[in-house]
Amino acid sequence: MNTRYSKHLPGLVFLSDLLLLNIALYTSHFVKFNNLVFSNTSITFILLVNIAWVVVSALSKSFYVFRPLWLRDNINKFLLTLIYHLLCVFGIIYFFKIFNISRTEVMLSYTLFFLFVVVQRSVLFFFLDYIRKNGYNHRQIVIIGDNNIADRLMKSFSQHPEYGYDLADYISEEQISGMEEPQLIQHLLSKSPSEIFVCYKEMNTDLLNRLVRIGNTHFIKIKVVSDLMLGNNYAQLISYDDVPVLQLNSHPEIGLKIRFLKRSFDIGFSLVVMVLGAPIFFMLYVITKLSSKGPAFFRQERVGQNEKPFYIYKFRSMKVNAELAGPQLSKDNDPRITKWGRIMRKTRLDELPQFWNVLKGDMSVVGPRPERQYFIEQIVEKTPSYKKLLRVKPGLTSIGQVHYGYAENVDQMCDRVRYDMLYLQNMSLNSDLNIILKTVKVMVQGKGK
What we know:
By secondary structure, the chain is α/β, with parallel strands linked by helices. The protein has 16 helices and ten strands.
């Protein structure tokens, strides 16, 4: 079965997104005002949001679903589109001075819209994965070129039926070199392929140009497959004029979109926590101040992104002058920790002032925990790959902090690096949200080490 419905999918997703946007708008209005009676301002706002979404979504093409299916990438693209849309709407509101719109209604609308789309995309991807594994929504493909590379590619497709590819034909380099262009066109078109995979070791430029012309004329995607085996490496295509070059890295490059999303999230999340959590901050300040002698806040120099030093802030959990003998790591039943400090460390409440570090740009909400230069030198001696973590902003919480907790010695620090390296390889807003939720769980359960 090779029925294909993909050509209708972008339109359906676009209309579905628009419907969910309006459901979110109407739901938030009902929650805020307990009715569906709209003022002229509310109607203007709804129209503005809809028009802006149609334009921004059409430009970003966030409603397209590409093969292979990567839910995380699709959600990240949608979230970036949502941020652009939000900035666009706010810009128009400010320009036309439409200030009597409920902030609660606006934020609730966007929050609901994001959650609705995450559920929608998850269901859609699960459905596409299921039907492709059962032979529907498939594309016919032709593979051309080197036998060994073609075998690798076909094996990959056979192991992943969710890609939705059916092999219509394989043409070896020897066969294709003996064909005239009209004969080649006739042979390819007789297979009705949606995509042609060109496997090569030494590519014939004339052959490739012929295939590209055929693809452009008959709306067939031409994809070139090299004989590289990347393993755990990551590739980025760079074009130097007419020369395509693959740049290989041991971990994925953090693109501008990811950095923009991450920084936008850091600022927004930190502001919400610091504003809504102000009473908690004040309470922690008072208890810390009264429970033991010394200042409520503690600052310490740490090493940040690109090895730039900065001062990290915490609620003081140890006695004053706890490190007169030099840098030390805390341990279980550490006599330097105050009684109240032990409670804060268990619930990670001592780390809350670092939201100020996040706002300043020294840190991110999620990222490898920052260390002192004294310990970094020892870690690098045992785990040289730790230096990769210094390329990104350190975080208030991290996957290593959640799964491993505080380290009591350098060996444990090195063990924790493994978790942070996994985060570096899979950095995304989705993974950040997952780590934040796990951190909250640790705080509520008091399982901080």
